[in-house]
Write a structure and sequence with these properties.
Number of domains: 1
Strand content: 5-15%
Number of strands: 5
Number of helices: 4
Order of helices and strands: EEHHEHHEE
Largest sheet: 3 strands, antiparallel
CATH superfamily: Winged helix-like DNA-binding domain superfamily/Winged helix DNA-binding domain
Low-confidence stretches: none
CATH architecture: Orthogonal Bundle
Structural class: alpha+beta
CATH class: Mainly Alpha
Length: 91
């Protein structure tokens, strides 16, 4: 169990890795990003990626490189799309 169910960021056993393929810490960050995108979409329609990264850093302490990686993952999965360069939107 310890070999396959360890969340590398928190160093704790996390059964969610086996069940969903993602540790709880990553799923929580993805949820934060999606929530912020939803609220920013209500204000502007499309979300400027630089503003999103800035707010994730200041309000949620999610670094820009990690946020970029998670946003890229959601773009690949189809959770987000890029209507034009430098902007993201929920599907």
């Amino acid at each position: 169990m310890e070999e396959v169910g360890i969340d590398v960021s928190s160093r704790k056993i996390d059964i969610d890795i086996i069940m969903t393929g993602k540790p709880k810490s990553i799923r929580d960050k993805l949820s934060v990003i999606l929530g912020l995108i939803s609220s920013m979409e209500k204000e502007t329609g499309m979300v400027e990626k630089t503003m999103l990264l800035e707010r994730l850093q200041t309000e949620y302490d999610i670094g820009s490189s990690e946020a970029e990686r998670l946003i890229g993952q959601m773009l690949k999965e189809g959770t987000l799309f890029s209507p034009k360069s430098g902007y993201v939107k929920k599907t």
